[in-house]
Amino acid sequence: MSGLLGDRAEQRQNSLQNSIMANGPLNNHGTLINASNVNLNSTVKKFTSLEQSYKNLIDKVQNGENIDSYLSDINIYLQLYQNHSTRDIRDLEEKLIAADREDEIDEALLSKELATKFIIETEQNQATRYLIANILYLIKKNFTRFISPLIKEGKSQYEINLAIENHILNPLEETISQTDFSHHFKQINNFLYFLAGNCHICWDK
Fold first, then answer.
1. Checking phi first, is residue 77 left (phi over 0); if not, alpha (psi -120 to 50) or beta?
2. What is the pLDDT of residues 188-203, one digit of tens each?
3. Residue 14 backbone phi and psi in degrees, to 5
4. Where are the alpha helices (DSSP H) in the chain?
5. Looking at residue 48, what is its pLDDT?
6. What b-and-e string marks burial along 88-108, b requiring 16 or more CB atoms within 10 Å of the CB?
7. What's the rounded Cα separation, in Å, for the pair 179 and 197?
8. What share of the chain has pLDDT > 90, as a percent?
9. In the chain, what is the straight-line distance between the N-terminal and C-terminal CA atoms, in Å?
10. Would you say residue 122 has pLDDT above 50?
């Protein structure tokens, strides 16, 4: 059985592009034409399998079914994102300063702290850990696919922020709105800074 978050061999190589979600490959069909003209329907559509998979996992837990095959993959991804990337050793504050985002430093540091605390507090809830692992994966994946190219092109901070809203924050908030995770919607933004703080994403070239 393929892991919920990807083929094990690919995970060992830290290859996120071809990861396998619970119901099959996670494909992107939306194309960013410009920061103000985004195909939101396709962006939201690609997250629907996450919502269903989360509900299926909850059912398995409630029915006392064995979920060991899920847990190893979940833990692989959580460990990957909780560890500091060796490719960029700057801390969160340094990244924000480099991207002319000094005004975000206080909020960013608090958000990273809240995300870290939330991940620790939910260690015993495997369904929630599954959702967190997938959310982190999707933030990283869509940031790399949609946001990083805009940064490299020198787009304005406004355009980059709008693209983050359209390709990351809004679609994920829409997805979890139909789950019992919905009251934790603020964590999605916190997870963004959490990934940046652990050097998996950044806002400068």
1. alpha
2. 999 999 999 998 999 9
3. 55, 35
4. 8-12, 40-45, 48-62, 68-82, 92-98, 105-121, 126-142, 148-152, 157-164, 170-176, 186-197
5. 60
6. eeebbbebbeebebeebeeeb
7. 27
8. 42
9. 38
10. yes
Q: Which pLDDT band holds residue 66 (cuts at 50, 70, 90)?
A: confident
Question: Tokens representing 69?
Answer: 């095959």
Amino acid at 126: Q
> Tokens 């390709």 correspond to what residue?
167
Instruction: Determine how many CB atoms are found less than 10 A away from the CB of residue 27.
Output: 9
pTM score: 0.73
Helix (H) or strand (E) holding 24: strand 24-25
**Per-residue pLDDT tens over the stretch 10-41:** 343 333 333 323 333 333 333 333 333 334 44
Class of residue 131 by CB neighbours under 10 A (exposed 0-12, middle 13-18, buried 19+): buried
Mean pLDDT of the chain: 78
Where are the chain's structural domains? Answer: 8-197
User: How many beta carbons lie within 10 A of that of residue 72, not counting itself?
Assistant: 13
| Cβ-contact 146, 33 below 8 angstroms | no
**CB neighbours (10 Å) of residue 150?**
19
